[in-house]
UniProtKB/TrEMBL annotation:
Family the entry assigns: Belongs to the hemerythrin family.
Keyword terms of this UniProt record: Iron, Metal-binding
Species of origin: Sulfurospirillum halorespirans DSM 13726
Domain (Hemerythrin-like): residue spans on this chain: 13-124
Name this polypeptide is given: Hemerythrin-like metal-binding domain protein
Gene Ontology MF terms in the entry: metal ion binding
SUPFAM superfamilies: Hemerythrin-like
Family matches, as CDD domains: Hemerythrin
Length: 152
């Protein structure tokens, strides 16, 4: 897989979500780069970080949708759940000694593009409105606290 560049077309219009999607893309690219050198320990570190970060990102997204009162939260959670199960399946295969890097990268890329452009765009307006409201209430700290909670 060649180097994957984030494009403005991937933006969901919410900076904090875009940043996390960019981070996932960066992990995928890193995995692609180090896979060439067959350094098993490095691959392991990035692979586990990528899977862990992706799962945290999905949980973070759900918390935002919940706070915003997004009406299709349950449906979106189901989509996340089936993807998390998929990631766990990759994790299991990896622990059993299978080389899953390439397949994981390809699948994650396809999933992310599709998810951003369809499912995530759907919650855009309600989540944006919720975040603007927090800002208006001078409650910007809410988002920072939430990021710390999910990513530390
Ligand atoms: Fe999502």
């Amino acid at each position: 897989m060649s180097y994957w560049k984030w494009e403005p077309a991937f933006s969901v219009g919410i900076a904090v979500i875009d940043d996390q999607h960019k981070r996932i893309i960066a992990y995928i690219n890193e995995l692609g780069t180090i896979s060439i050198y067959h350094d098993k320990e490095k691959v392991r570190t990035v692979l586990l970080a990528l899977m862990d970060y992706t799962v945290s990102h999905l949980a973070f997204e759900e918390r935002l949708m919940e706070e915003a009162g997004y009406p299709k939260l349950e449906a979106h959670k189901q989509i996340h759940l089936s993807f998390i199960e998929r990631i766990h399946f990759f994790q299991e295969r990896y622990e059993n000694g299978e080389d899953i890097s390439k397949q994981l990268m390809t699948e994650l890329q396809m999933w992310l593009i599709n998810h951003i452009q369809n499912d995530d765009t759907d919650y855009k307006e309600v989540v944006q409105a919720m975040l603007h409201k927090k800002e208006g209430q001078m409650n910007d700290g809410w988002l920072t606290t939430l990021i710390d909670k999910f990513f530390k």
